[in-house]
Design goal:
By secondary structure, the protein is α/β, with parallel strands linked by helices. It has a single domain, classed as Rossmann fold, CATH 3.40.50.150. The chain is about 40% helix and about 25% strand. The protein contains nine helices and nine strands. β2, α4 and β3 form a beta-alpha-beta unit. It is globular and about 50 Å long. It starts with a helix and ends with a strand. The site of S-adenosylmethionine has 22 residues, from α1.
Length: about 250
């Protein structure tokens, strides 16, 4: 069931960091997310990274003393993460080659209520076919009051709607089928959790393929996004949204 995801990300693993970070808008969104994760997770906590990829989030968080258990289906992506762990001599990241829908197997290893929190950044949950099973297992793995932060690719992206080309329910990236969630639809899959907040990201910030390339303007639009990220209706209208739940 996860073979397509594995193959696609294995193939793009070597160039992944460069492809993501070469674009200013993506970089700004990435820094915003790191800042947000560091506001939510603290030194010495044990936190699950779901769809960790090459460790773009895991490495900076581990360097701040947060203990990371990183999960991904792609061996290629995990291989890059392993290289970084060796390079920076990081001791507080553990890796499991696992699909997000299969994290119930972590209960046997770590036990129930063993994690202070979990996060999943830049869309791994959009390509997880078994969200209900995942939600159930995550609830078991988290300690009471444990946090879950996820950035999800949004079906209600303002820019596409203004172009009269709204995103459909499903999309394809190479061979991977993924689902665009509306914020409400996503929240419904996590009924056991309590919602802390929702934020929009990439609302007016031009996306990588945009014709807007002026860096000054991009920085101004990013500041505007930061200002309105928690405000109605903009929090529902970014290219992605961040959900922040607790158990
Ligand atoms: C777009 S990358 C994001 C990686 C990282 N979180 C980041 O911000 O750079 C998506 C990653 O999630 C992984 N992934 C996608 N769907 C997954 C699933 N259902 N289970 C586990 N990993 C998944 C992919 O292999 C890939 O490494």
């Amino acid at each position: 069931m996860y073979k397509d995801i594995e193959v696609v990300f294995d193939e793009s693993s070597e160039k992944y960091d460069y492809d993501v970070l070469k674009n200013l808008s993506r970089r700004l969104m990435y820094y915003f997310i790191i800042e947000y994760l560091l506001m939510n997770f603290k030194k010495e906590e044990i936190v699950l990274d779901l769809g960790c990829g090459t460790g773009l989030e895991a490495i900076p968080l581990a360097k701040k003393g947060i203990n990371i258990v990183a999960v991904d289906v792609s061996q290629g992506m995990l291989q890059i993460l392993k290289r970084k762990i060796e390079k920076y001599q990081i001791k507080n990241i553990k890796i499991h080659k696992l699909a997000i829908g299969e994290i119930s197997s972590l209960i046997k290893i770590y036990g129930e209520e063993s994690f202070d929190g979990a996060y999943s950044i830049f869309g791994p949950l959009n390509s997880e076919p078994n969200i209900a099973k995942f939600s159930y297992s995550l609830f078991k793995l988290l300690k009471p009051k444990g946090k879950f932060v996820a950035s999800i690719i949004n079906r209600w992206y303002i820019y596409d709607m203004l172009k009269f080309k709204p995103r459909m329910e499903f999309g394809k990236y190479k061979d991977i089928l993924f689902k665009y969630y509306t914020p409400f639809e996503f929240i419904l899959s996590f009924k056991n959790f309590r919602l802390n907040e929702i934020l929009g990201i990439g609302i007016f910030l031009p996306q990588p393929k945009s014709i807007i390339k002026n860096e000054k303007l991009i920085n101004i639009l990013f500041k505007l996004d930061k200002h309105i990220s928690k405000r109605f209706p903009f929090k529902y209208l970014g290219t992605d949204f961040i959900v922040n739940f607790y158990k």
